[in-house]
Every structure is written in C-alpha cells, then in structure tokens.
Specification:
19% of the residues lie in helices and 37% in strands. The protein has 67 residues and is α+β, with helices and mostly antiparallel strands. It has one domain. It has a 3-stranded antiparallel β-sheet with strand order 1-2-3. Strand 1 and strand 2 form a beta hairpin. The longest helix has 13 residues. It starts with 8 loop residues before the first helix and ends in a 5-residue tail after the last strand. The mean pLDDT is 93.
Length: 67
C-alpha cells in the first residue's frame, strides 16, 4: 500500500528539532489528518521509558493553530 502526504520544510524543521530534543534514535510514527478541508494536523509519536514503564509520547508538529 502506498500512502502520500504533503509535509513542508517548516514541518521537517520541527520534526528534526523534536528528534534532537528527545534523543530519538529509533523509529517514530507520523500521524497525518486532513479531513477538515481547511488545513491538516501532524503529530509525531514515539516510544520511550517513563519512570521505568514504556510510554507512547505524541507531540504535535502542526495543529489547528497553524491554519
């Protein structure tokens, strides 16, 4: 299955900053939602350890405030 999304340079810059700030060395997932017709939302999700437990962390890259 092939899926395409549009990401601009500002999104890539923010993604790179999130990766560096959180020292992400493994894989991460991008969640892209574009159902409103106005703009899109993009979240970056990765697994990390928090207080000895596995946690899923989701950080907004682009949200409704960017429309």
């Amino acid at each position: 299955m092939k899926t395409s999304i549009v990401i601009n340079k500002d999104d890539l810059d923010i993604i790179q900053k999130i990766i560096e700030e959180n020292k992400i060395v493994g894989a991460f997932t991008l969640h892209y939602e574009n159902g409103s017709g106005i703009g899109y939302c993009l979240d970056l999700e990765f697994d990390d350890e928090l207080h000895g437990r596995l946690a899923k962390i989701s950080i907004t890259v682009t949200g409704v405030e960017n429309w």
